[in-house]
C-alpha cells in the first residue's frame, strides 16, 4: 500500500501531514491526516489516538479547529484523523443530496445493503486498514486510543466496544449514543444495514455495552446547549446502559456549550490527557 503526500505543515514542533492512498476496504481513494509530535523524529515509537469526525466533516475539521497539536506535542501523542466516508465519483451519496447520509456520513458501519455495500465499510477501514497503514509507515507503537465527535463519537464507542483488546483508551464528544433510536441513526442504519432492526444492535453503543467483554473506561463530554442533544444524541441512554452493565462511564454535561468545535476545543486537553495516561500504562 503506497502513500502519496498531499501536504505538510510544521505545527507545535511536530508535523501535520495529509496523505492519499488507495483503500482496498472502501474500493476508492482516501485521504487522512496525521499529526506527528516532535518525539516522532527522536526514534520513539509513539501511541496513536484515532479521531473520528462527525457529519459533513473530512480529515481537516478536527486538525484545523480543535487545537489539539500543542498538548499532543507535549504528551508525545500521534493523532490520526480519517475522512468520514468513502469518496469519489463512483461512490453513491444520499439520493436527495442530504448531508446526514452518504458522502460525509459513513456512520462507521460496514454496509450490507446495495448500493452501499461495495464502498461503505468505514468500520473495517478505521479498525483494520488504516491502523495497518499507520503502523507500517510511521514511528508508532501498537497502543491505540479512539475518540470522536457526534457521528464520530458513536463510531469511537462502537469501534472500541466491538473490538475488545484493539484499543486501550476511549472517549467521545457529544456522541450519537443510541443510533437505533434517533432520526439520524434510523435513516443511516436503515439504509446501510436494511430495515431489520435486530441487525442494528451490533452498531449501537447502548446495546453493545450490555454484552461487552472488556470494560474500558469511557470519558464523554456533552454541551447542554447542543441543538441536537434531545433528539439525536441521547446521552441519558448511554448513561443508563453503562449503569445497567456496570461499565465505567464519566459523562460530563457542560453548561452553555453547543455542538461546535468551540466546544471540542474547550475540552480536548482533558481527552488527550485521558488517552495519554491510559496508553502510557497499557
Ligand atoms: N451541516 C449541518 C451541521 C452538521 C454538523 O453540525 N456537523 C458537525 C458534526 S455532527 C461538524 O463537526 N461540522 C463541521 C465543523 O463544525 O467544522 C448544518 O448545517 O446544520
Automatic annotation (TrEMBL):
Which terms does the record give in the GO molecular function aspect?
carboxylic ester hydrolase activity; S-formylglutathione hydrolase activity
Q: Which UniProt keywords apply?
A: Hydrolase, Serine esterase
Catalysed reaction(s) here are: S-formylglutathione + H2O = formate + glutathione + H(+)
Q: Which SUPFAM superfamilies match?
A: alpha/beta-Hydrolases (SSF53474)
E.C. number: 3.1.2.12
Report the domain of life of the source organism.
Answer: Bacteria
**Active-site residues, Swiss-Prot/TrEMBL:** 150, 226, 259
GO annotation terms (biological process): formaldehyde catabolic process
Task: Please name the InterPro entries in this protein's record.
Answer: AB_hydrolase_fold, Esterase-like, S-formylglutathione_hydrol
User: Which Pfam families does the entry link to?
Assistant: Esterase
The record's GO CC annotations read: cytosol
Write down what this protein is called: S-formylglutathione hydrolase
Amino acid at each position: 500500500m503506497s502513500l502519496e503526500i498531499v501536504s505538510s505543515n510544521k505545527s507545535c514542533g511536530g508535523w501535520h501531514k495529509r496523505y492519499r492512498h488507495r483503500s482496498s476496504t472502501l474500493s476508492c481513494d482516501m485521504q487522512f491526516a496525521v499529526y506527528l509530535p516532535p518525539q516522532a523524529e527522536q526514534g520513539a515509537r509513539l501511541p496513536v489516538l484515532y479521531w473520528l469526525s462527525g457529519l459533513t466533516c473530512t480529515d481537516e475539521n478536527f486538525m484545523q479547529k480543535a487545537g489539539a497539536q500543542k498538548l499532543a506535542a507535549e504528551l508525545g501523542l500521534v493523532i490520526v484523523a480519517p475522512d468520514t466516508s468513502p469518496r469519489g465519483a463512483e461512490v453513491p451519496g444520499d439520493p436527495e443530496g442530504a448531508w446526514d447520509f452518504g458522502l460525509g456520513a459513513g456512520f462507521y458501519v460496514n454496509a450490507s445493503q446495495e448500493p452501499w455495500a461495495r464502498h461503505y465499510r468505514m468500520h473495517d477501514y478505521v479498525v483494520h486498514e488504516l491502523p495497518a497503514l499507520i503502523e507500517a509507515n510511521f514511528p508508532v507503537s501498537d497502543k491505540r486510543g479512539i475518540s470522536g465527535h457526534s457521528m464520530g463519537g458513536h463510531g469511537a464507542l462502537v469501534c472500541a466496544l466491538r473490538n475488545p483488546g484493539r484499543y486501550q483508551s476511549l472517549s467521545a464528544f457529544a456522541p450519537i449514543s443510541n443510533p437505533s433510536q434517533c432520526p439520524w441513526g434510523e435513516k443511516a442504519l436503515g439504509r446501510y444495514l436494511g430495515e431489520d432492526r435486530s441487525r442494528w444492535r451490533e452498531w449501537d453503543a447502548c446495546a453493545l455495552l450490555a454484552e461487552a467483554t472488556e470494560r474500558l473506561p469511557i470519558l464523554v463530554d456533552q454541551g447542554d446547549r447542543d441543538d441536537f442533544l434531545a433528539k439525536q444524541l441521547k446521552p441519558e441512554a448511554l448513561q443508563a446502559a453503562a449503569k445497567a452493565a456496570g461499565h465505567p462511564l464519566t459523562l460530563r454535561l457542560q453548561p452553555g456549550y453547543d455542538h461546535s468545535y468551540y466546544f471540542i476545543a474547550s475540552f480536548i486537553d482533558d481527552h488527550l490527557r485521558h488517552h495519554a495516561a491510559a496508553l502510557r500504562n497499557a
